[in-house]
Amino acid sequence: MENLWRAATGQDPNPDDYRGVEFWTDPERAGWLTKQGDYIKTWRRRWFVLKQGKLLWFKDPASVTRGSIPRGVVSVGGCLTVKGAEDVVNKAFAFELSTRDSTMYFVADTEKEKEDWINSIGRSIVQHSRSVTDSEVVDYDSKSR
């Protein structure tokens, strides 16, 4: 019933958002996080996978297969910050991931897991950021003096 509701309301992510990402194998990070809903602000425990600049989430680890459709996906290259958010949501081990338009909140199970997720997502933001394109990079060493 929930899948029917998600399909009817267009809540499934666009397949173009994760095309070419083999999320079912060798993720950069994977694990349980509790995520605040986008529309209804309830907290739900989901299985998260970080791979190739995409943060994807699923109902549970068993639902991560080659043919599965993620419940959501965020391109971390479009994110601006990832940082602790315990004070914002009044929950231990909370962190936030922000884009220009929105902020998503997550809760890890431990302080170490929170820090590991923040570090992994932060590295991915830097690696996949669109803020500096190859054409904007200047090699100062090769310029004549």
Automatic annotation (TrEMBL):
GO cellular component terms listed in the entry, alphabetical order: cytosol; early endosome; recycling endosome; trans-Golgi network
Pfam families per record: PH
Domain called PH: residue spans: 26-126
GO annotation, biological process: endosome organization; receptor recycling; retrograde transport, endosome to Golgi
Entry-linked PROSITE patterns: PH_DOMAIN (PS50003)
Molecular function GO terms recorded: phosphatidylinositol-3-phosphate binding
Gene3D superfamilies xrefs: Pleckstrin-homology domain (PH domain)/Phosphotyrosine-binding domain (PTB)
Protein name: Pleckstrin
Organism of this sequence: Theobroma cacao (Cacao)
